[in-house]
């Protein structure tokens, strides 16, 4: 009975998919009619039950035999522009001459951008994106007039990437605004922007940004191939693309960079990377992505190199501590007590004497509670989130210790782990997963399991790639120029070369 029902549903699904495919083919082949009435009736049928679409017929005051049709989406267009630069000039048209479209474009319409098309599919895509469509009675061609007027956020500093020094601008949801923020910083014809559309239903506009003389053309071709292979209904955010073009789809580590800061994107493309901007998303993607970028910050290049080198080392150590401290603590306490100094071991044993749960189970529960509090704080309004963090960290922790539900050393370990994990937000999802895997192995096998887990983790990182580029390369030779922006940052006058893994155009600064 269930199998028969499933077969019916599968047949129904295949039938619907076939109808949708046939409709798309029909639309892609359909062209504009020469009759204004036929065009209006056709688009009223295509946009049936859509009251937001406005279709208006006009006649010239100077020559009533000349008729026009306007079609646009209310709320997406600039009403003043349509009234003053389209409707008003059309009402004054006296004659159209031998080439009506060229006459209108050159003599009547005062629009900055005009496109000609015969395809119904192109008209549907553009009218739903804020353009106005102009039909002329007797002409089997339409004009697409730029009349977009989207409501967007102002350019503000990204909440997740605040800096003490440096630019305060951040991307918003408008693709053209984001492109202008990049273009303003690189005033050269070598900076290229390439458009493509992704998403069968959304037709989302995506832009690839790169510097032609610096980018590796093989990597650029590989990126284009991966983007063109994307076949999905809609691209609503840049993370859709991240998951669909990643080299290893099941790794917890990122293979595509992300940022909301235009200065970061400019810095990346100047090193030979490519940026991907998605209309409707304030997050830009960058590829190839190196593992060391998880520990880099835009502030590293705006502040003194001594201080930024120190903070970068802190981030790297913070990541190592965050994934290893809980597992190492459990391995030592549960399996290798002889490695603990006697006074310290006595204190730990005394604290654990009255605690009901085993150490391994206790730290699992505490880490999960910590992540619950952190996630709840991230989803709450700022005022509530601050109160929640204080209650969670102080009241709950202190009360649990006093009630002998958990041991005090365990609170210290979890608190230290939580603080160090906040140093590297870019790699935080992977940190959480690795931390629990190492903790599970250490809880069952002690230091033996801990080091086995660490070995697999290091081997996995060494095999990570981004756009077929190794994220971490160990060649066996240590060249001074290659490590000047890895563990520490050298001053700019010493960093004369670009990262060799990303581009073959290595010269960043001429020798003095």
- Mind summarizing the main beta sheet? 5 strands, antiparallel
Question: Strand portion, in percent?
Answer: 5-15%
How many domains comprise the coordinates?
Answer: 3
Q: SSE string, helix = H, strand = E? A: HHEEHHEHEEHEEHHEHEEHHHHHHHEE
Tell me how many strands there are.
12
- How far from one another are the termini? 81 Å
Oligomer: single chain
Mean pLDDT: 82
Description:
This protein has 512 residues and is of the alpha+beta class. It has three domains: 23-145, no CATH class; 159-289, no CATH class; 305-469, no CATH class. It is 46% helix and 12% strand. The chain has 16 helices and twelve strands. It has helices at residues 2-29, 36-46, 79-91, 100-108, 120-127, 175-183, 217-228, 238-245, 262-269, 305-335, 342-352, 359-379, 382-402, 408-421, 428-445, 447-462, and strands at residues 53-59, 67-73, 114-117, 132-136, 142-145, 191-198, 204-211, 257-259, 274-278, 284-287, 465-466, 469-470. The strands form three sheets. It has a five-stranded antiparallel beta sheet with strand order 1-2-4-5-3, sandwiched between helices. Strands 6-7-9-10-8 form a five-stranded antiparallel beta sheet, sandwiched between helices. A two-stranded antiparallel ribbon has the order 11-12. β6 (191-198) and β7 (204-211) form a beta hairpin. α15 (428-445) runs antiparallel to α16 (447-462). The model has no long low-confidence stretch (mean pLDDT 82).
């Amino acid at each position: 009975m269930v199998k028969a029902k499933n077969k019916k549903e599968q047949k129904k699904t295949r039938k619907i998919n076939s109808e949708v495919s046939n409709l798309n083919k029909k639309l892609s082949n359909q062209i504009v009619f020469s009759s204004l009435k036929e065009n209006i009736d056709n688009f009223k049928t295509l946009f049936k039950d859509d009251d937001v679409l406005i279709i208006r017929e006009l006649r010239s005051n100077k020559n009533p035999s000349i008729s026009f049709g306007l079609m646009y989406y209310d709320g997406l267009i600039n009403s003043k522009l349509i009234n003053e630069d389209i409707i008003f000039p059309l009402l004054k048209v006296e004659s159209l001459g031998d080439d009506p479209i060229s006459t209108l474009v050159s003599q009547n319409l005062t629009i900055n951008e005009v496109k000609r098309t015969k395809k119904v599919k192109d008209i549907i895509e553009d009218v739903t994106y804020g353009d106005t469509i102009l039909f002329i009675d007797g002409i089997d061609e339409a004009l697409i007039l730029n009349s977009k007027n989207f409501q967007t956020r102002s350019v503000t500093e990204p909440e997740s990437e605040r800096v003490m020094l440096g630019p305060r601008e951040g991307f918003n949801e408008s693709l053209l605004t984001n492109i202008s923020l990049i273009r303003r910083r690189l005033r050269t014809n070598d900076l290229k922007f390439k458009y493509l559309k992704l998403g069968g239903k959304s037709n989302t506009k995506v832009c690839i940004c790169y510097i032609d003389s610096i980018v590796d053309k093989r990597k650029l071709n590989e990126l284009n191939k991966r983007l063109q292979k994307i076949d999905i209904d809609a691209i609503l955010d840049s993370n859709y693309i991240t998951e669909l073009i990643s080299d290893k789809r099941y790794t917890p580590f990122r293979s595509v960079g992300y940022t909301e800061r235009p200065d970061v994107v400019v810095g990346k493309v100047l090193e030979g990377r490519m940026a991907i901007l998605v209309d409707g998303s304030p997050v830009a993607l960058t590829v190839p992505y190196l593992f060391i970028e998880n520990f880099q910050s835009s502030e590293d290049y705006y502040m003194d190199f001594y201080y930024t080198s120190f903070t970068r080392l802190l981030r790297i150590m913070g990541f190592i501590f965050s994934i290893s401290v809980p597992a190492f603590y459990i391995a030592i306490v549960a399996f290798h007590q002889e490695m603990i100094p006697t006074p310290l071991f006595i204190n730990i044993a005394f604290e654990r004497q009255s605690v009901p749960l085993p150490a391994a189970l206790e730290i699992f529960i505490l880490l999960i509670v910590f992540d619950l509090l952190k996630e709840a704080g991230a989803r709450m309004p700022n005022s509530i989130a601050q109160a929640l963090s204080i209650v969670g960290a102080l009241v709950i922790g202190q009360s649990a210790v006093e009630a002998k539900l958990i041991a005090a050393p365990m609170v210290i370990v979890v608190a230290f782990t939580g603080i160090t994990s906040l140093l590297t937000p870019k790699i935080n999802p992977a940190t959480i997963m690795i931390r629990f895997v190492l903790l599970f192995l250490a809880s069952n096998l002690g230091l033996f399991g801990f080091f086995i887990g660490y070995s697999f983790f290091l081997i996995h990182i060494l095999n990570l790639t981004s756009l077929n580029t190794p994220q971490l390369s160990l060649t066996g030779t240590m060249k001074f120029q290659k490590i000047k922006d890895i563990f520490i940052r050298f001053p700019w006058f010493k960093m004369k070369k670009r990262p060799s893994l990303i581009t073959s155009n290595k010269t960043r600064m001429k020798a003095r």
